[in-house]
Amino acid sequence: MRIVRALAALAAQPRGTRRLLTVRFASNVADAVVLAGLDDPVILDVRDPAEVAAGKGGPPASVPGAVHVPLNIDGARQSERPTTQEEFLAAVAAAGLALPRDRPVVTHCGSGGRGGKAAGLLRDAGYDAYNGGGPAHVASALKLSS
Hints:
146 residues, alpha/beta, Oxidized Rhodanese, domain 1, 6 helices
């Protein structure tokens, strides 16, 4: 949406005053078609508890069947204290989940930042992991409703 607003603002400027528009694509969220093609994925919600309670990234507020495993350790932001692979895998185990290696894993947060980090940690550990973005994208792609 930010790109659309930036392009609209650029188009509204008089021709002689337009400046170069730089667009940065930071998202590595899996396309809905890719997610829809996954066979029986495990879904991990890596948002903080307060974000889950507030429904950040929804609707829906949560994805049916998702297991909540916060990526942030002790509520510290990733920019302040990045979670290690070992810490995240320990958090997954502490949530009572034994991740199967024969099923894909979809991670999501509110919009895809931490979901992407979590998917990367899992891929590095040998799992078939995808960043689902936010709960709305995951639920829509997988045709789930709460």
